[in-house]
Write a structure and sequence with these properties.
Blueprint (H helix, E strand, L loop, with lengths): L1 H27 L4 H81 L1
Helix pairs in contact: 1-2
């Protein structure tokens, strides 16, 4: 999650820096105020569109990675559950078998004592 926040912060910083640089460059250019304002507005719209596109790309990558990680986690959890269940069943059968043997031995010993 912090990597996502860092990426978003870096992206926002780069866009803000680019916007500030463009605005300052236009303000110091020797043009009419009306023309400068139009250029600033156009550039701001371009930057807004670029930011939307980048956000969409980053958002899709995050969704894909979440989906992949989620699937891997579910699969791993499922495998662990099956392994535990198989181990439980194996040892349960061994314990039942050994218990039956002990019961037979005890019954045999009791019969020998009679």
């Amino acid at each position: 999650m912090s990597k996502k926040n860092n990426t978003a912060g870096i992206l926002a910083g780069l866009l803000a820096g680019a916007a500030a640089g463009v605005i300052l460059g236009m303000l110091y250019a020797p043009e009419e105020g009306k023309e400068t304002r139009k250029k600033i507005k156009d550039k701001a719209n371009d930057l807004k569109d670029q930011a939307k596109n980048k956000y969409g790309e980053v958002s899709e990558k995050v969704k894909d990675q979440y989906s992949s990680i989620s699937s891997t986690f579910k699969e791993t959890a499922n495998n662990v559950a099956h392994t535990v269940k198989d181990g439980y069943d194996k040892y349960k059968d061994q314990i039942v078998s050994k218990t039956a043997d002990v019961v037979k031995n005890v019954e045999s010993e009791l019969n020998d004592l009679k």
